[in-house]
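Weekly sync notes, structure subgroup
Attendees: PM, AL, DS (notes)

Item 1: joint prediction request from the bench team. They want all two components modeled as one assembly rather than separately. Inputs as received:
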Amino acid sequence: MTIELPLLNQEDSTCCAPATGAAIASDDAEYIARTFKALSDPTRVRLLSMIGATPSGEACICDLTAPVGLSQPTVSHHMKQLVDAGLVEREQRGRWAYFRLVDGALQRAIADLPL
Amino acid sequence: MTIELPLLNQEDSTCCAPATGAAIASDDAEYIARTFKALSDPTRVRLLSMIGATPSGEACICDLTAPVGLSQPTVSHHMKQLVDAGLVEREQRGRWAYFRLVDGALQRAIADLPL
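Output from the run, pasted for the record:
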């Protein structure tokens, strides 16, 4: 006795298992994307890097403008986006604003990425 | 004998040393910002994560659409941005496109950041 089996059309069938295993959940993805949006501009990447590279771990806005070749209002605008994303904290001292990295913020953003 | 020294007005003076020490150079900042721009959207973060989470290290476009709840053309558009950023590579097999992570691409983007 023979049984007829339907032919599988490999090109038309779906394949593999659903790719959701250890993937990042929606809420975490929102947080990660928000962090990376703050770093999707080369000037902000450089500003973050400059703050991290100071011996004291902090930088005055007055020392951040010249290296990136931009006006203080423009640099302040970029810094606000880094602060809003939770990557940097701001402290006003007299007429100057000082910035330092928020400990662990960037690590949290990359922790669940497939590195 | 006494010598008169000028009073330093701490609030008006500039401070600290220029914050350029080990900071990221412009070209590298462009590369990093381009990579992070591709990951500045939560759907793309999830897509990258899903590909990285598959046992085989690759995922078919047909298995990526349902988990993110978007149409195949929309997911294809997101995937193109990940490919253009150099984070993912694409291979066409029959009617399906398959994606896998580009080894070391994300590591290169974060290597010089102040973590």
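Discussion: Chain B touches chain A through 56 residues (CB under 8 Å).
Action: AL to compare against the crosslinking data before next sync.
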